[in-house]
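Today's session is about reading a structure prediction critically. Students often jump straight to the picture, but the first step is always the sequence itself: look for stretches that repeat, for charged clusters, for runs of hydrophobic residues. Only then move on to the predicted structure, which in these notes is written as discrete structure tokens rather than atom positions. Here is the chain we will use throughout the hour.
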Amino acid sequence: MSLPTPRSEDTILVTGASAGIGTELARQLAQRGHSLILVARRRERLDELADEVRQAYGAEVEVHACDLADDAARAALIETLLQGDKHVAGVCNNAGYGSFGRFWELPRESETNMVRLNCVALVELTHAFLPAMVERGEGSILEVASMASFQPTPWNSTYSATKAFVLSFSEGVSAELAGTGVSLTVLCPGPVNTEFSDVAGVAELHSGLPDLFTQSAEEVAEAGIDGMIRGKRTVFTGLPHRLIAQAGRLTPRSALLPVMNLIGSRTLERR
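Below is the predicted structure for this chain, in token form.
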């Protein structure tokens, strides 16, 4: 129950590969000898990354520019990949984004697309490639969740809800896969030093966190790949993050929500 060793007939799909954790997953998987399928919206960045890992590691790389929040584009991509020459031996569902603000003041289309990308696309991609993995008796899927999975987060309400879905879905499917030879790992990082916080609108909050709670994309990607190789169900990227996540599960909502709400409101006031 782990990520298969690299073989010429196999490849690994990485979504959200144009930046942050996705880029590092691609680099480190290529360094380990795996062929790659890279997916993101920004074709130029994907091409640059593909050229980099080809030159550095001799990796075979296939690139697909696709907005995974677009239902039609996502369906077309899945159909194309299912008809590919290589077995998809691993899937890293990393694509996703967040937002910050009062829910009713945020753009409806962006909030809805977040659910499509963070949840619907992840489910569809997992379902597309899991049957063949089970039939072959090997394969590994990595779902990228967050420490936000473990409690509702005012001012990040949609994002934390999507990641709670990813966590619950992943742990359930992981249990179903027992004895199949296939593993499903959910990665739960804390704040990561990437452009994600800028896109989500929480850069100022992120920059004020102690170094103990922030990590590099390289560290997070390494933890995720190690979890795939070992066939782990849930991966935290450090002891502080594990403790905070469990505290979020155990703390009564009546105590937790007012504190989280205060942090969010003060962050908005400082903008």
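Discussion point for the tutorial: Strands lie at 10-15, 36-40, 61-65, 87-93, 139-144, 182-188, 234-236.
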